[in-house]
Amino acid sequence: MTNLTTMSGFLLVTFPGNPEVEILQASLFLVFYLVALTGNMLIITATAIDRSLHSPMYFFLKHLSFLDLCYITTTVPRSVCNSFMHSGTISLWECILQCFTFIFSGWAETAMLTVMSYDRYVAICFPLRYETIMDTTTCVHGVLAAWTSGLISGVMHTAATFSIHFCGPNVIHQFFCDIPQLLKLSCSNDYIPELGVSAFLSVVAFLCSISIGHSYTHIFSTVLRMPSAEGRAKAFSTCLPHLCVVILFISTGLFEFLRPPSDSPTVMDFLLTVLYTIVPPTFNPMIYSLRNKAMKTALRKLFKDRKSSLLC
């Protein structure tokens, strides 16, 4: 029996005996990561520099993009390095840090999307009171609540996971320290605390989903009653990108949560993991930049200013 005090690390195995497939996977991961890095950094830069984007909606979007960067950086760069170096070893403390950061950024993003849905609800349903309700204090408190919830969730999940005893071999059939895979290495039923934490956080996630659904029910009800077609189009242009991001993030997470556990890893298990770890942070910036006129204008201005500075 091996426990936290004696185990030195784990072995991450994705495609055993297929170095060509492993290199192909690493190359695709690198492309996805560079796209996610570029897109989220552009949004962070645009919302920080462009004064027209200094509003609560883009204040939250800036933090969402930062969380997306944390979310994908936690897993992908290490996986790419391991694949190119043909070494899947990860130390115990690196695995602990990876689990904590992954859970922290994922749950903070869930909370941030909930806060953003409330912001859209106030903007559409109470436009005359929007600046009073969503003042600077409220926005800062919303962001702090999102980050704090992520921190608490990360500590709870990580502490419960690594309090269990692990039995060898210490092989994780995934490209990162995935908690469900770690639980398979448990020697006995001492993973019950982790299941309790998962159940509690699942309830919290369900409440967040209910809150988002409640906000958008009122939003669509209000928008559809607008007499002006231009007003409806403007309202949808600010709400639909956020709703698409919410659906993408929650649906991909549900794939992982609802899929039946398998004793022998399959390609489908790997693809489903990619679906909820890599797809959301990669495509979120595209959704916001393609559907949001203000964001597209700010990005064009950013590129124009950058081009002018290079010419000078």
From TrEMBL:
Keyword Transmembrane on entry: yes
Domain G-protein coupled receptors family 1 profile: 39-288
Main location: membrane
Domain of life: Eukaryota
Keywords assigned by UniProt, alphabetized: Cell membrane, G-protein coupled receptor, Membrane, Olfaction, Receptor, Sensory transduction, Transducer, Transmembrane, Transmembrane helix
One Pfam family per UniProt: 7tm_4
Transmembrane residue ranges: 29-49, 90-108, 195-214, 235-258, 270-290
Membrane topology: Multi-pass membrane protein
Cellular compartments annotated: Cell membrane
Database matches in PROSITE patterns: G_PROTEIN_RECEP_F1_1, G_PROTEIN_RECEP_F1_2
InterPro entries linked to this entry: GPCR_Rhodpsn (IPR000276), GPCR_Rhodpsn_7TM (IPR017452), Olfact_rcpt (IPR000725), Olfactory_GPCR (IPR050516)
Record family assignment: Belongs to the G-protein coupled receptor 1 family.
Protein name: Olfactory receptor
Species of origin: Echinops telfairi (Lesser hedgehog tenrec)
Taxon lineage: Eukaryota, Metazoa, Chordata, Craniata, Vertebrata
